[in-house]
Amino acid sequence: MRRLGVSIWDALAIRLYNHSIIQVLVGVLIATVVMASVFLFEWLTNLLSVDNIGNSTALVNDISTPILVGFIEEFVFRAVLLGCLIIWFRSRVLAIGLSAVLFAAAHLGNQNIEPSALIGYCVAGVVYGISYIRTEGVWLSFGLHLGWNYTEGRVFGFPLSGYNVPDSFIAQHNTGLALWTGGAYGPEAGIIGLVARFALLVLTLAWLNSQYSKSVLALRTERAA
User: Fold this and answer.
1) Cα dihedral 141→142→143→146 (10° resolution)
2) 181, 187 in Cβ contact below 8 A?
3) Which of 18, 74, 117, 185 has its CA at a distance of 20 to 30 angstroms from the CA of residue 111?
4) CB under 8 Å to 44, separation ≥6 — which residues?
5) What is the pLDDT, as a whole number, of residue 2?
6) Which parts of the chain register pLDDT below 70?
7) CA separation, residue 168 to residues 28, 29, 75, 188 (Å)
8) Taking each helix axis from N to C terminus, what angle separates 139-149 and 115-135, rounded to the nearest 10 degrees?
9) What pLDDT was estimated at residue 221?
10) Sign of the alpha-carbon torsion through 203, 205, 210, 215
11) Within 62-190, where are the H helices?
């Protein structure tokens, strides 16, 4: 890669720049706002019942897991897979669509998986793919992915992709129809969770449209330095 004038880190879009941490934090913030909205809506409409609120130590229990899972999945599905698909098909739209389908298919083995959840994963794959392409890196998509997984399971106590997160900050249980809440699989399999995925897309696009030119200009300036 160096012979081509591009480092392996730049080629894989995982090199850290000054603005990378900002992108991670923005992604986490957007996902947190969306998931908090899901929790509040279900709580206010009696679709869930809160059993207990733990102490702050619950927020850092096993925090390495969502960080590692989020980064590994973004590296594999965006930096490697999506990057290769763009080269092969020379179409960003086709590459994003196919990578999103493959991202959804990777969750087929999850416990209590529902067809509706696969639609949500496809939408999430599109969100992460657009984030990767528009920022020329994995850091915004990683922040979105991390924020979604961390707040869904560790903070708000929802089942995370079919799996229960032990000792979450908020202990709660589902009291509404699975059609709306996703039931044992969690919000991702319900109508509310699907709406949340589209909300994630809208908020991410809104931020990208307001910051895209600045982010790319800063990135290219650093690479040229």
Assistant:
1) 120
2) yes
3) 74
4) none
5) 41
6) 1-17, 212-225
7) 18, 19, 27, 18
8) 150
9) 63
10) positive
11) 64-74, 83-89, 92-105, 115-135, 139-149, 178-181
